[in-house]
Design a protein that fits this description.
The complex is a heterodimer. Chain A is an alpha/beta fold. Chain A has one domain: Rossmann fold (3-Layer(aba) Sandwich). Chain A is built from 6 helices and 14 strands. Chain A has a 6-stranded parallel beta sheet, sandwiched between helices. A 4-stranded mixed beta sheet of chain A has the order 10-7-8-11. Chain A is globular, with a radius of gyration of 16 Å. The two termini of chain A are 15 Å apart. In chain B, the strands form 4 sheets. A 6-stranded parallel beta sheet of chain B has the order 1-10-7-4-2-3, sandwiched between helices. A 4-stranded mixed beta sheet of chain B has the order 8-5-6-9, sandwiched between helices. In chain B, 58% of the residues are buried. Chain B starts with a helix and ends with a helix. Chain B is elongated, with a radius of gyration of 28 Å. By secondary structure, chain B is α/β, with parallel strands linked by helices. Chain B has 36 helices and 18 strands. The chains are: A alpha/beta, B alpha/beta. At the A-B interface, helix 5, helix 6, strand 11 and strand 12 of A face helix 2, helix 8, helix 10, helix 11 and helix 12 of B. The complex binds iron/sulfur cluster. The site of iron/sulfur cluster has 16 residues of chain B, from helix 14, helix 16 and helix 18.
Amino acid sequence: MRYPPYRVITEGFIRQATAAGAEIHLVDGSAGLVDRVTSLLGDAGAGSASNEFAVCAAASVEGIGPLAGLLAAVPGVRFDVTRETASHAAVGITSADWGVAQTGTLVCDSTAATQRLASTLPLIHIALLPSGRIVPDMAAALSHLDPQKARFIAAITGPSRTADIERVLTIGVHGPKRLVILIVQDGNAGDPRP
Amino acid sequence: MSDFVKSIDRALADPVLSSSLTRFSEAYRTGRARAFEGIDFEAVRTQIAERKSHAARNLDVLAERFTQQAQAAGAKVTRVSTPVDACQYVLAVANQSGARSIVKSKSMASEEIHLNATLEKAGIEVAETDLGEWIIQLAHERPSHMVLPAIHKTRGQVASLFSRQTNEELTDDIPGLVAVARRELRSRFLSADIGITGANIAVAETGSIVLLTNEGNARLVTTLPRTHIAIVGLEKLVERFDDIQPILTALPRSATGQLITSYVSIITGAAENTDGTPKDLHIVLLDNRRTEMAADPVFSEALQCIRCGSCLNVCPIFRLVGGHVFGKVYTGGIGAILTAWFDALEESRDIQSLCVQCGTCKDFCPANIDIPALIREVRDRVTHRDGLPFLQRAAYAVVNNRRLFHAALRAASIAQKPVAGGGFIRHLPFALTSMTEGRSLPAIASRPFRDDFPEIPQPECTETAIFYAGCLIDFVYPETGASVVKVLNHAGVRVVFPMEQTCCGAPARYGGSPEAAADAAKANIDALSAQSADYVVSACPTCTAALKIDFPELMDKFGTPDQQQSARIIAEKTRDFSSLVQQLASQGRLKFKQDSPGAGVTAYHDSCHLKRTLGVVNQPRELLSAAGYEISEMAESDTCCGMGGAYSIKMPAVARAVLDRKLTNIKATGAPELSTDCPGCVLQIRGGCDAAGIDVGVRHTADRIADRIAD
Ligand code: SF4
């Protein structure tokens, strides 16, 4: 199969994810990532008091490297993701493995329970998507994952929603009210390719 | 009055239910169409049908493979044959682990086996966590819709349910109510011992189950408790991991008009628990007669269903009565079929009769299931088992004796009042009594068309058409028969009218008696085969469909090889009036009056059988336009008018409500006239306009065209 140019795919992803209610930011390199996470957490009140914090289930990001050292400086970030911390956290940070342009979907290998805790319990979910990992459709994303190894594949499109009362669309039922996707460019600029 | 009829009357009188369902059905169509933009729906549904029917043919092999693969990945898989077995298994798992509390995400299969009742009786707390399901649980009700369980509840009703539950004074602010559900259920999620889900798809190749949700509850249900039990109907199996794709494309688009649900979870075996242990995952493969269904030559098709709810959303009856009248877990078109199997055939007797056979659902079904045909099959088997009610049987016997039938109609036309009121004639195949309120009924014509025809001199032409009138045109609207002949003659087609032709058998066919329908077909095949002709023309779409589709099918089942052969020849020559005449007109064989300003404005109503059974949509419109009419398109022009043959007699209140809606749409066009290609629709709509004092002229397309023929 021949895919359209990468830039077109990325634009498609941004358009569809936005239409599904996600917030998208392009961040440049580790400095850009730290800046953006700091401001998002600041707005969410994380770090302002001892009981306001973010849990981070992402160990590293492709093209950037390990996050522990990077985010240690950001007030309120914790890396111990448990039922207790995740259910009290204002924000959960996870990695995302693939972005699907057709529907604006994130596809994540969530075999590790920490990935699921951080993306289901807090009201805000921040997902870190390497810029080279956007594919045209779901079939392409799933072809990169082996269900025998990825025991829990999670496809996430926009925030949690319901229309069960009088069909009025309401955001944030059991899962996050906000889904923030940071498309992380590795800092070497240019047109990224997978 | 039976409980069933009472529940229908209650539903029809419930303003919340019908207005929210109707608003939903309108918004649904737009949203769905938008979601499918750029997608080849026919290709996707062909793929789904192909893969799911392949799975249905190989259920045992797939179940075996699924079991191996899921077990290799750390799941425990068990296959159970009855709902009781399924409940016992779940109960045993709960007891072994000493579970006290369970959280569930939406699962039709668990509703099917009435799992909650079993668990609660054992003293285990169960919380439904899908918002709609939780509302229903608090109200102690049954879901009224497959996808939107609480669509019949208002925000006010939800507020009082939640207030009672939380001991708080809650307002009817919807985001506020949703926040309450989040807060209340969050602690349940965190403390539950077991999570129970269904599955939308089960993949044999990998042992994976796939769950689609919007709220995110299934993610919590499968993540937080240490034990996860998935109840999976065997029909959820597909062979390959790739088979997920077409279902993932069609299911959210068909269900809610979304490109994809917020969450899709693909779980393969035991993933990690939050304490690092592997999940205690149990998958219960539920049979409950699914293997038996798979072996049934007709009903195996129903196993293709992906439970999207489209057939409920587009049904003109469902949006008026809602799901509760079904009194069962599975509702709507597919519900009438599944209930006959998962519960029992007799449980479906009443609900299958709600189907007006308009065929709309079939156009929308993403699994390409011929839902109306399967409902007809349920109907046939119900009557086969129970026998027909006496009056219905007597009526078919009369109809199938042409002389007696026609004599009765003639007698009725002379002594209209006493006979019509005497309780007999109303069991004849069309509604000729005033029993349906809200609709005036026509008198039987004083002279049937068959008596008029010999007096219409026939020109010598190179082409000949047999005119098959059908009961309504013959005995109620003979003037339409005259119009048909006039137009055909004008186009250079000689018309013959075999006097032995009789009722097409549709009432018996739709009434659950294929044998009686076959007898009618044989009489007509004899009558029509006696003449040679280029065309067989009918101006009744139900008759046309009978000649074109039903006769060959019925003869394959009940006829001799000769009859099969004749039925096929007739079917090939059969044309509906508008398509044939439109074709002749496009060849320049008709001359229309050239006056200005033309023939005026008319709305157009698509008859169910013309549009959906015969696939004729544009021809009547083009023909009317060519004849000088301006068409004012009407909202829901192809939604059933409620006639449905004998339906308006059996389900008068429902038919009336369907008709009311049609009348509203007609009025909204502002057109002074309405045209349609079906004499049954003329009867229903003209009668409705008359009774409601709506000043719109309702006429058959053939009459409109005959008016415009240049002298
Ligand atoms: S029968 Fe078809 S339309 Fe109805 S729920 Fe099943 S898949 Fe959907």
